[in-house]
Amino acid sequence: MSRTTAYAPNSGWTDPDCPVARTLDLVGDRWSLLVVRDAMDGARSFTEFQRRTGIARNILTDRLRKLIAHGLLVQRTAPSGRRQEYVLTDAGRDLFAVILTLRQWGERHAFDPGETHSTLVDQHGTPVPDIAPAGADGALVDADSTHVRRAS
């Protein structure tokens, strides 16, 4: 998907100049990100997505179509040749840091202390460390040390 041709200006964006708003226009609903999350965790079939999320069939159908249309998933014939499967594209895999950041925020703020929850681990079984964004100089950056430069 070419970023220069995929979305024409004035195509109904909530805030055309803001990357956050455009991203939310594409994947900002609850179900889209849960489908992407499950695809990252190995779900490939319609049935798997439905079982893992509990999403209604009509909503899942809509979200899968939207994710395909926006270049986050592709649909292809499964190796068995008997069904279709959904696979993340590079753009879909690029949402990993978003999913990870949401997960880590949830671990800190959506659970009571000591409450059990799932844990994301690496290939060795070690919990994934917290994301800490850094500037070009290596110093940590946050909402107090950054600002948005508006498009002119």
Task: Give an overview of the whole structure.
This protein has helices spanning 19-27, 30-40, 46-53, 57-69, 90-93, 96-109, and strands at 73-77, 84-88. By secondary structure, the protein is mainly α. The protein has a domain at 19-109: Winged helix-like DNA-binding domain superfamily/Winged helix DNA-binding domain (Arc Repressor Mutant, subunit A, Orthogonal Bundle), CATH 1.10.10.10. Strands 1-2 form a two-stranded antiparallel ribbon. It is globular, with a radius of gyration of 18 Å. The protein starts with 18 loop residues before the first helix and ends in a 43-residue tail after the last helix. 10% of the residues are buried. The model is unreliable at 1-10 (pLDDT under 50).
Tell me about the largest β-sheet.
2 strands, antiparallel
> Which secondary-structure class do the elements indicate?
mainly alpha
Total count of strands: 2
Portion in helices = 25-40%
The succession of helices and strands, N to C, reads HHHHEEHH
Considering the protein shown, what is the CATH homologous superfamily of the domain at 19-109?
A: Winged helix-like DNA-binding domain superfamily/Winged helix DNA-binding domain
Low-confidence stretches: 1-10
- Gross CATH architecture of the domain at 19-109: Orthogonal Bundle
Distance between the termini: 26 Å
Protein name: Helix-turn-helix transcriptional regulator
Domain HTH hxlR-type: 18-114
Pfam family, one: HxlR
Keywords: DNA-binding, Transcription, Transcription regulation
